Amino acid sequence: MENRKIKDYEEIEGYDIYIEPQFRPFGFPVGLYIALKDGVIINIKPEFGYLTTGVEKVVEGMEIDKAIPFIDRVDSSSAISPELTYCIGLEKTFKIDVPLRAKFIRTALCELSRISSHLLWLTRLANVLGINNALHYCLREREEVLHLIELATGSRLTPNFIRVGGVASNLSPRFIEEFRKFFRSFRKNFNMLKTFFLENELVVNRLNNLGVLIEEDAKNLAITGPNLRALGIKKDVRIDDTYGIYDEISFKIPVGEKGDSLDRCIVRMGEIEQSTSIISQAFYKMPEGEIRTYTEDINQFSGNTRSHIECPHGELAMEISIDEGKITKLRIKSPSYNNLLAFSRAVLGESVEDVEVILTSFDICVCEVDK
Amino acid sequence: MKGILRSLLTVIKNTFIRSITVLYPYDRIIIPYNSRGSIRLVVDLDTKEIICDGCGECVNACPLKLISVEKVSHDKKIKNFYVDISRCLFCGLCEEACKKDALKMNFNYELAERDFSALRHDIDKLTEYAKPKVKEFWKS
Amino acid sequence: MKILLRKMVHKVRNFKKFSLFNKLTNWVKSTSINIYCFTSGCCGNEILAILGPLYDSERWGINFVSSPERADVIMVSGTITEKMKPILEDLYNSFGNEKVLIAVGSCAINGGPFYKSDFVLKGVKEIFNVDLYVPGCPPRPEAIINAILKYKDHFK
């Protein structure tokens, strides 16, 4: 027991503090080496790799449909987005037409899981800041969203719902009934959550000017998603390179100004509002019809594909190569990895007490970092 | 100051609404009909026989090869049916592959066990739900 | 006098073995369970949901503590990699005398979907003695609460 700690201490010459990975509860194993000077952080080195499962290697040699439940486990907070990336890539090269109703169902479920992921992030932020009552209100809303996802797909976190050429099952009429009920109450409850975070002076003063990310660093580290939009740069895969039915739906992209923790909070709060409006538009325009096109010669396909979508953490990209219906190579580019590197730049010049707040404000999913 | 008072007001307001807590072991949350739990074998209610004839579609469909079937030779009946729950992904691909609807995902989610060997369900456990429940009081 | 003193000392030493005292401590332990949660991966999201208002774990006196010295139960969930193994061993050694371990999720039981991978341990049962297995990938919050309630019988 003691030998390991001494060994670690020798390894980190030049660093003062080591925060161990199990210190952070509820699925967040990242170790941090911190170097201090007069109580201010000069240098920080994140230690990751505690969750390396090797999905890319495990999936090799599998058939196309059987690999989908494994790809689910890449992202723990919104498992439907890696599925969608995988299926969109294969449909593009093999030229499989997706029915229009399936596209609408896909986007509706993607936005629902985006809301659930952002609400999970809010609960984590409330936990770190110490606002216990807001934590319970966030979890209440999240349970309702997860109930809707389970009603449509059959599972709370790992749906295994999207297939090549459509979706697995149709939406029941009860789902739409329950969604209307949820939609009425959610707007009211979400405004209540805003008063806890954005109108409360104690929270605003804590988050304001904390962990500012410079634009130069953001461009060098190639970060994407809400963390980039908090800087005021309008970049979103849903609009720049549209997929699905996002070109038929009108929605705004919330943008911050400075790139501090408060701006990241404002951008994610705005995204929750926008995704509720996207879902309601999608249900309003949703046509009747088939949900899946079956292709019988799926076992004879071979080729290389590349695809990218906007997942709740940023831009998720995949490279797949397939030989006679079996995966020979899979490569995943996850946004959380770049966000973790961006955190190590943004935290410089702050004090040690604020490290946890800044780390949670970046919304890092460790499953994605290590894969 | 104004914001703190407003957030306090919302807390006071919420103390008067109906509580949403479900008293779990006595009162259960309503689970959707398509929710995926442990696997069970469907039993025909009239003849009280298992529908499954051991074609092996689900064995091929499982991505981790957790299902194994023992067949009676020269007959369309199965001797035994094993599912390893300990490694199960609950993905539902076996249910999709079955063409006779002989396999269904159960609503049962209370699967905690003390023994590791009890996590491998055999045919008795998979059809346990259909057996008549006679209380021990009546037997004696 | 000496014989009486010796008897007294003997009684005090074996005080823990008294059935009434044992029953009392066990009753106290079963009504307030302190759990140290060792999470990695998506099972952590479901354990966080237990704290929420819908399931409300504190009805049962379930408390999540942040150091293993204060805990009655250690709950291991999620994938455990070779890099994580020495840290888990340290935690297990600093844990109290009565070691109770619950493995949550198929990754912790058996390696789960990634049992072929080189980086992943094939379950906690390879290193430690496991008292309860909770299958599911990830298990529902009710399943985890049900497992903790089953653990209560351990004391009775």
What does this molecule look like?
The complex is a heterotrimer of chains A (about 375), B (about 140) and C (about 160). Chain A has one domain (about 1-370): Cytochrome-c3 Hydrogenase, chain B, CATH 1.10.645. Helices cover about 50% and strands about 15% of the residues of chain A. Chain A has 15 helices and 8 strands. In chain A, the strands form 3 sheets. In chain A, strands 1-2-3 form a 3-stranded antiparallel β-sheet. A 3-stranded antiparallel β-sheet of chain A has the order 6-7-8. In chain A, strand 2 and strand 3 form a beta hairpin. The two termini of chain A are about 30 Å apart. Chain B is an alpha+beta fold. Chain B has a single domain, classed as Alpha-Beta Plaits, CATH 3.30.70. Helix content of chain B is about 20%, strand content about 15%. Chain B is built from 5 helices and 5 strands, in the order H-E-H-E-E-H-E-E-H-H. In chain B, the strands form 2 sheets. Chain B has a 3-stranded antiparallel β-sheet. In chain B, strand 2 (about 65-70) and strand 3 (about 80-85) form a beta hairpin. The mean pLDDT of chain B is about 80. Chain C has about 160 residues and is an alpha/beta fold. Chain C contains 6 helices and 5 strands. Chain C has helices at about 1-15, 20-30, 45-50, 85-95, 105-110, 140-150; strands at about 35-40, 60-65, 75, 100-105, 130-135. Chain C has a 5-stranded parallel β-sheet with strand order 2-1-3-4-5. In chain C, helix 3 packs across helix 6. The N and C termini of chain C lie far apart (about 40 Å). The model of chain C has no long low-confidence stretch (mean pLDDT about 80). The interface of A and C includes residues 21 and 58 of A.
Quick rundown:
The complex is a heterotrimer of chains A (371), B (140) and C (156). Chain A is α+β, with helices and mostly antiparallel strands and 371 residues long. Helices cover 49% and strands 13% of the residues of chain A.
